[in-house]
Please model this.
Amino acid sequence: MKMSRLRVAGAAVVAAAALTLAACTGGDTGETGETQAPSQDTPVAGGELTILSAGNVATWDPGSAFGSFPGVNWDRLYAVYGAVISTDVDGNIVPGLAESISTDDGGATWTMTMRDGVAFTDGEPVDANAVVANYERFADEANALAAYRVASSFAVSAVDDMTVEIVPLDPNPVLDTLIADNIPFIASPASLPEAGAEYGDPVGAGPFVLESWDTAVGEEFSKNADYWGADDGLPYLDTLKFSIVADPAQRVSTVVQGGAQIMNGYGFQFIADADNPAVATFDVASGGIRHYVFNNTSDLMSDPRAREAVVLAIDPTEMVQTLTQDPSAEGSTALFPSTSPFYDASLSLPETDLDAAQSLVDEITGEGTDFTINLLIAAVPELVRAGELFQLTLEQLDGVTVELNQIPIQDWRAEAFDKDNFDVTFYPGVFDLNSPWVGMANLFGVGGSDNFGNIDIADMEQALQDAQSATSDADREAAMAQVQQIYVDEMPIGVFGIDYRTFLIGADVTGLQSMGRGALYTDRIGYKAE
Model:
């Protein structure tokens, strides 16, 4: 019998911002996982803290979260809603509004037990019926929510006031991780709008309450005195603010000068301030890939020869050095870093070869196909540099034109995910791999939350299913090797580097812990004792 179960941490452990888990995330093989260790001292109570962000929150709808990376939606939604469950950077399930989620039949049926005595800020109970109301709303196609893909994959019902039964359409041994990474937020059912209507007045049970929201400026939150972690001193802060500053250099200088306390980014952005005593850095333990994505259904990139020509033309080291402006950075064309148990050097994209790329272009254009690439770029400095190098490199090939389309980062997702308005686009940031058998399904699987390249490969689907249902390390490694082999054969994306998310923080800030793909547990952040 396989069981995935978590248990509630004791008060002292919560106060130290570390949670003890009874088992690894669903789909693992039974070994106990290690959660991220507390980064610094336990914060003191009180204070106001500002986090800088590149863009405004697009919506407060709890069904609109997409991936737990920091920067726009996830951080704000967690502040308002907390999480039913979440994952840490090692892929372990962390309790929240739910005390546990478990299966004892290989994922055919899951049981979620809610934490007793918790209420939304409007006084409505956070119970099984609230979970059912939210998940059924997510699964309503009329609402057109990002949560639809996961929520529509199971039936949900209230067994009693505090117990939820979740039955996948097909047995799913990693459903707990899918829920934690895709639909962890729920709102008070009394506040939810009719199908298709926008939700702009959030009512949650999170560590903070939204006090003000200006799409051009940011948001201000006040402490939720009735938060479920209040007995353990959570949240530590009295006031949390998010301030919008589009320019990354300005964000850095603002934190360095004390005008804000936290910004997310990457290590290369903070090199100049490495020895500045006014700031420190906090690295997210789980790394990920830097890559560009092909629209596998566009007129041009549906031809695998066109995808191969691009891969052969782009030098990964030159690309990652241009993006990071770090002359020591080394490129990579593998799906996993060399430290991963799934890494296999033989399962990498081919080496750069402009002559071979030109031969493929000649074949395609000789058949009458126009080799004009619509390159979509989110207009942040590092991606603009990468896009310009891409354009310069590909246009060295006879017959190739690259039309560079730069758009605001907050508009990028709609253009890439909803409108398919690209042949090639760079994924903003890194694609984190803390739970790779789930992450790869999101990236490559049909209906995957990050599969905006419209990838649909039958052998890949089977390999992903095998990886998720594996009951031994050997079986999972074999399935993941097959995933990587298909990646090399089909080239649905182009990996060019491995990177890690990093936060720049004021030297007096403490208590940082990151979930899944890098977003912070904002209830655990605060200031060091003087």
